[in-house]
Amino acid sequence: MGVEDNNLVSALEVKDAFVSALSTVSSTRKIAALSLLAHNLTVSARAVYAERNERDDAVERLYTLNEVQHSLSNQILHIANDNNNYTDQYFIDLLYSLASSGNCEDELSWALKFTLPHVR
Fold first, then answer.
1. Count of other CB atoms within 10 angstroms of residue 119
2. Cα–Cα distance between 104 and 118 in angstroms, integer?
3. pLDDT, tens digit, for every residue of 11-70?
4. Which pTM was predicted?
5. Distance between CA atoms of 26 and 44, rounded to whole angstroms?
6. Which of 13, 35, 41, 94 is the most buried (most CB within 10 A)?
7. Alpha helices in the chain (DSSP H)
8. Cα distances (angstroms) measured from residue 21 to each of 8, 27, 104
9. Is residue 27 classed exposed, middle or buried when 0-12, 13-18 and 19+ CB atoms within 10 A define those classes?
């Protein structure tokens, strides 16, 4: 699941564009965007599961995506309860840090890419 797009060709560009867009929207729109990101991550997880017979690290990757999902849903709750202590940049960096621990950066970038048009 690589990130490929004419306008956003690298994972870093997708990440930066997502942070930039997220930083400009209201809390209500931010909750909607992060909820869509959570949904898109489930699609990424399905792709990992589909590869379970082809890759030895499928269980580890699914565990990693679960941890990313956990942090994402926690952030949505914090924003909804007006108790958010993270900047958007810090939070997205945190998600990438979690994703990189299990080789899931591509899955996160894919989910960000398909969420980004709905943030703006």
1. 21
2. 22
3. 899 999 999 999 999 999 999 999 999 999 999 999 999 988 888 999 999 999 999 999
4. 0.89
5. 27
6. 41
7. 11-22, 27-50, 58-80, 88-100, 105-115
8. 14, 12, 22
9. exposed
